[in-house]
Design a protein that fits this description.
The chain is an alpha/beta fold. It has 6 helices and 10 strands; from the N terminus they run E-H-E-E-H-E-H-H-E-E-H-E-H-E-E-E. It starts with a strand and ends in a 12-residue tail after the last strand.
């Protein structure tokens, strides 16, 4: 049965986040708010938790999962980033953007794209996931909380708890989010001198990226 932790949206209670971090260490999948929508998260190195997260989301290994990072310095340990890509990332981070980059060897193969060896990365602009990431001490694997057969993410924490009560360990309830997925931009074309490719237009505006 999924628990529901009512956390303050701007000053989340550390005792609740510590409890959530312990759950993640134990292989749990959690739902938490971000600056775009609620997301599912789990420990990057827990194979069973990753499989459960994919099963809840209804996606296979070809679907890009995302690593939530605290800041760009942490992001650089899990993705190969050149100077041009870094400047673009820095211009909109933190924010509601997911960037596709080539994964480093620090990222388990099972969570990167099997053919391209790429991974989604982002730094959320929301106190709850940032505080949880600080306690956890490493990136978390994440995906937007869109259930199979639906086009929009779930946004109501009690509904999330009710719908996924047997799949989740807990829901971090900080109230409703924007309920709009991130903008997804593939930066790998920049490796060969091509412009970034917009894969999904979401909450993040394209103008700051020079892609509007």
């Amino acid at each position: 049965m999924a628990q529901r932790f009512e956390v303050h949206p701007t000053h989340p209670q550390l005792r609740l986040l510590r409890q959530a971090a312990q759950m993640l260490q134990g292989g749990a999948v959690l739902a938490l708010p971000t600056d775009s929508s609620y997301a599912l998260v789990c420990h990057l190195d827990d194979k069973a938790a990753v499989e459960r997260l994919r099963r809840i989301r209804g996606v296979d290994e070809r679907h890009h999962l995302t690593l939530l990072c605290r800041d760009l310095s942490e992001l650089a340990t899990v993705a190969r980033v050149d100077n041009r890509q870094y400047r673009l990332l820095k211009s909109v981070t933190p924010g509601p953007y997911t960037f596709i980059l080539h994964a480093t060897k620090e990222v388990p193969r099972r969570v990167s794209h099997p053919a391209r060896k790429t991974i989604g990365l982002r730094v959320p602009d929301h106190p709850v996931p940032l505080a949880l990431l600080a306690i956890h001490g490493a990136p978390l694997l994440a995906t937007t909380l869109i259930l199979p057969g639906y086009d929009a993410p779930l946004n109501d924490p009690p509904e999330i708890q009710a719908r996924l009560q047997h799949e989740l360990a807990a829901v971090l309830d900080a109230g409703a989010c924007a309920a709009e997925p991130t903008t997804v931009v593939d930066l790998t074309p920049m490796d060969i001198g091509q412009p970034p490719q917009v894969l999904r237009v979401g909450r993040g505006a394209l103008a700051p990226l020079g892609l509007d």
